Amino acid sequence: MEKRIVDIEHNLERIDKYLSEMLDYSRSKIQAMIKEDYILVNDDVVKSNYKVKTDDIITIEEMEDKEIELIPEDLPLRIVYQDSHLLVIDKDYDMVVHPGAGNKSGTLVNALLFHVKDLKAIKGEIRPGIVHRIDKETSGLLVVAKDEKCVEDLGEQLRLKTVNRKYLALVEGVIPHNLGKITAPIGRDPKNRQKMAVVDGGKEAVTNFTVVERFKHNTLIECVLETGRTHQIRVHLNYIGFPLVGDPKYGLRKTDTTNGQYLHAKTLGFVHPITKEYMEFHSDLPTYFTEYLATLRE
Question: What domains, with CATH codes, occur in the chain?
Fold first, then answer.
């Protein structure tokens, strides 16, 4: 961990510009670190456009994936849509999206580099074209941009909350009400930096849910995201006392985590950055998920 105190010479300079010069990292790398809360100012989360002030204390926690070499790998990849600007992937629950500590290969990024020859976005970074991600133990849809312009446009749609993202989630316990809205800020857990938590000073996070089906000890719900924080659905549902079934990080210890958490990104809708056409995609539940629901119905 490294700490820097801003001197008067850099007062009111954008933090991503300031740190990219100080640390010799690309601005996109700094922005990714800020987004993942690896960079704090006076122990608070900030945005990439934050303007530093004299005597601000900036804490930088090293991202472990800094030196990872990206290698194309011939891995199975379900591409549900592709054109010269972007593609939509239907991800298996057991595939990590991008390389990191403990997952230097076998990821979605490694597969993309093999199968998609015109992937140009964020060249040299560990997340080429990844606009948003879903966790390893989560299945379903995500969009990948092929160039910097599409990365920026889709990223802006996410910031403006105009991307339509719906998830199916199976939780522990029976939720008594049919509708709910969870508004609780999320940041890194101060007791465990490998986890996220609802914390004071965290980033705004809003999850809406609707009950789809109730079982004896579980509830199937549809979640609609207004924001896209790391582990948002998992953290929010655990926070209200209904953790995801099978969640290895936030769920109940007695739960079978063989297939990870029962969370599936079933709907993804956005405006195409170039054609300006609204596009919407849908993904069926994986077999293990439907089979588990069948046992609950019995």
Answer: 2-60 (3.10.290.10), 165-265+289-297 (3.30.2350.10)
Phi, psi for residue 197 in degrees, rounded to 5: -160, 165
Q: Are strands 263-271 and 139-145 parallel, antiparallel or unpaired?
A: parallel
Q: What is the pTM assigned to this prediction?
A: 0.77
Active site residues: 135
Whole-number Å distance between alpha carbons of 37 and 61: 9
Instruction: Write b or e for each residue in 256-290: b if 16 or more Cβ atoms lie within 10 A of its Cβ, otherwise e.
Output: eeebbbbbbbbbbbbebbeeeeebebebebbeebe
Token readout for 76 is 């199975």
Q: What is the mean pLDDT of residues 93-98?
A: 85
**How far is it, in rounded angstroms, from Cα 275 to Cα 117?**
22
Indicate the pairing of strand 86-91 with strand 179-183. Answer: unpaired
